[in-house]
Design a protein that fits this description.
By secondary structure, the protein is an alpha/beta fold. The chain is built from eleven helices and nine strands.
Length: about 325
């Protein structure tokens, strides 16, 4: 009898909880503000992507989407915070390709990229770009490499283990040149080369493009296999004989594992529509960002290739985060 009573009690509890859970899902995202927790500081490429979408997401869903920046530890602080957040669709991680890199870069990143999150959508991507301060005499990448072989030089990147760092380390190996790495927070790397603290930088395109167009930086190469339509006069790194390069910084949206599938699907639909809207597409294009519609399953499949890919690059480069 007691066993029957326990079963009846559990069934009654499930019946009471189910309508509440359904109601929470049905009202998303109008119950409270949706926080887009950005893994890097204001002004970073990840931040630029998140802020480009908030107004459109508000219009499309009737919700209130807000951006909160939580930089630190290469994005791991924000990532672990979202990992521990309620799985209700109201706290979402906005990250970069570092999400796939960090588990192999850090002794303990604090999360499993494949198990601790519900993939919402893959955002836009951008080639990385190598720029120099106009005071640098080198006008081409080969000239820069030759100059660095004769005179000690340094470069700024968007942080240890970012693809901007790993791409340059791969170039150094291929070119047999030693250039000191000076890691910055993503938003600060461009400022370092603008101010002349380092003669060159390897960054994603969004923070660099306005400075290049204003004549404050000189672009020497993009790290994709082909040129960027946004800067058609800037050579691809492959044009200088470095054939294995096709490196991008991409951005993504992740929810805590256990987020209701219905919320994941609705969130994905809203993100796709926002990123395909004319005003957001125009902004992305101006920054050298390209977006392709995708669903959660496609994004999950993409992650299953990116995580081991960057793990291999981290291992071969010897990169480590303190």
């Amino acid at each position: 009898m007691s066993r029957i009573n326990r079963r009846s009690g559990l069934l009654a509890l499930a019946c009471l909880c189910a309508p509440h859970s359904f109601a929470q899902t049905a009202e998303w995202p109008k119950a409270k503000p949706v926080t887009l927790l950005v893994a890097f500081a204001p002004g970073s490429s990840t931040d630029i992507v998140a802020r480009a979408l908030t107004q459109k997401l508000n219009e499309l869903t009737g919700g209130n989407f807000i951006v909160e920046n939580k930089g630190g530890a290469g994005g791991n602080i924000a990532t672990t915070q979202v990992k521990r957040a309620a799985a209700d669709g109201y706290t979402v991680l906005v990250h970069s390709v570092a999400f796939a890199v960090n588990p192999s870069l850090y002794a303990d990143a604090g999360y499993d990229a494949m198990k601790d999150f519900a993939p919402l959508a893959l955002g836009p991507k951008t080639p990385n770009i190598i720029t120099v301060n106009p005071s640098v005499s080198a006008k081409t990448l080969p000239e820069l490499v030759e100059a660095a072989k004769k005179t000690p030089m340094s470069y700024a990147s968007s942080g240890i283990g970012t693809t901007t760092h790993l791409s340059m380390e791969r170039l150094k190996t291929a070119a047999k040149v030693d250039i000191a790495h000076v890691p910055y927070q993503p938003a600060a790397a461009i400022n370092a080369v603008l101010a002349g603290h380092t003669p060159m930088a390897s960054t994603s395109m969004p923070p660099a493009v306005p400075q290049i167009k204003a004549g404050k930086l000189r672009a020497l190469a993009v790290t994709s296999a082909t040129r960027s339509p946004l800067l058609p006069d800037v050579p691809s790194i492959t044009e200088f004989g470095y054939k294995e390069f096709d490196d991008y910084t991409w951005f993504c949206f992740m929810a805590p594992v256990g987020t209701p599938p219905a919320v994941v699907e609705r969130f994905n639909a809203a993100l796709n529509r926002a990123m395909e809207s004319p005003e957001v597409t125009e902004k992305f294009t101006q920054l050298g960002l390209a977006f392709t519609r995708n669903n959660p399953a496609e994004f999950a499949a993409f992650l299953r290739t990116e995580v081991p890919k960057w793990s291999a690059v981290v291992k071969s480069s010897g990169a480590q985060a303190n």
